[in-house]
């Protein structure tokens, strides 16, 4: 009897580990099972890293889709950093579409994110179609210890198969969200006789007023759209990604944050419970009088 697949076991373990330590946990698993590094890196979504194109000076996002060995390809100059002579690159026809897609989604990023970084990478498929990934990242950096911090990472992977004047698109979207709120006060400062006061953060403790909320969500959809010219693919995938991001953002706000709020209220009420109980009893009495 064969044992469980090592990759499945590692992915099952990753689902149970804190999402804020994805990179650290992935690196630890790779050190334990180096033979499965590529399988693990291709299956686990990690927070996107921002790099700067040396040729153009523009920022781009690095992930497994533009990685070749230890180098990453920039969508702006089409060059690898560190330099790679035989790095994988799209065909001239697809590269032209990739340039147009990067400009289009750069506008989309500015409209919806008002900042951040975006990148689009395309590659050919063996069956004659092509695939791509649209990356979007926005990070909020606090200017003081009391301000909240967080990041939003969107990874939209799509496959395209042309069927005459129609194209079939399969989109897989993943959103990774991390929020950290802090509330520092003098109560967090401790001192030892004869030594200067030290804050809890300086002692390696977590601030008593710090709350971290993080996680990821993945959704899929398939649609057919007309294709009049090569740039129609940009318009079609753009509509799908825009619709998907709006749905996922609403889900995060209404379902996940709403559920978290309900759980917190169940654990600890904001109002006096005795006062709430008396109000319920009064309501029952009023209802009883009305029924009479």
Biggest sheet details: 5 strands, antiparallel
Report the average pLDDT across residues: 87
Strand content: 25-35%
Portion of residues within helices:
25-40%
Rg calc: 25 Å
Which residues form runs of ≥5 with pLDDT under 50? 186-195
Helix segment tally: 6
Distance from first to last alpha carbon: 73 Å
What is the chain-wise order of helices and strands?
Answer: HHHEEEEEHEEEEEEEHH
- Report the principal-axis shape: globular
Care to count the β-strands? 12
Broad structural category: alpha+beta
Model description:
- With 292 residues, the chain is an alpha+beta fold.
- Helices cover 36% and strands 29% of the residues.
- It is built from six helices and twelve strands.
- The strands form four sheets. Strands 6-7-8-9-12 form a five-stranded antiparallel sheet. Strands 3-4-5 form a three-stranded antiparallel sheet, with no helix packed on it.
- Strand 4 and strand 5 form a beta hairpin.
- The longest helix is centred in the C-terminal third of the chain and has 36 residues.
- The protein is globular, with a radius of gyration of 25 Å.
Write a brief caption for the model:
This protein is an alpha+beta fold and 292 residues long. The chain is built from 6 helices and 12 strands.
Key traits:
three-stranded antiparallel sheet, 6 helices, 292 residues, five-stranded antiparallel sheet
Lay out the secondary structure.
Elements: H1 6-14, H2 22-32, H3 37-43, E1 49-52, E2 59-62, E3 67-68, E4 71-73, E5 80-81, H4 92-113, E6 117-124, E7 130-140, E8 149-163, E9 166-181, E10 189-190, E11 198-199, E12 211-226, H5 232-267, H6 273-291
Antiparallel strand pairs: 1-2, 3-4, 4-5, 6-7, 7-8, 8-9, 9-12, 10-11
